[in-house]
Amino acid sequence: MAVEITCTFEGVEEFKAALGRFDFGLHGHVHRQLESWATEVKESAKQLAPMKTGRLRSSIYAKVHEWVAQFGAEASYALFVEFGTHYMQARPYLYPAIQEHLSKLEQVVCEAIDAAKKEAGLT
Known about the structure:
This protein is mainly α. It has 4 helices and 2 strands, in the order ααββαα.
């Protein structure tokens, strides 16, 4: 005795298309949200950086590539200010700025995912 069950699914092609739109949109949404978040971190770091001539503050940067945010400062002495030396106490500005905004990062990424889902028609 054999039992045969046949299932027909409708909307599979539309679902595949929506997933493709979601994948494409997700990268754009996350990138834009990360850029905005990274700009906030950079501005905080500039406010926290000690200022004598303004060179250190003006050299602080934030770069976003793929899903990676990179922060730094191009002034030759930036490392010494952040971490200190035998002769000078540390005056951190990058690490505290990142820490200040870190709790918002998960929210930013979740908002990007939600926007991509909505745009793709998956909500």
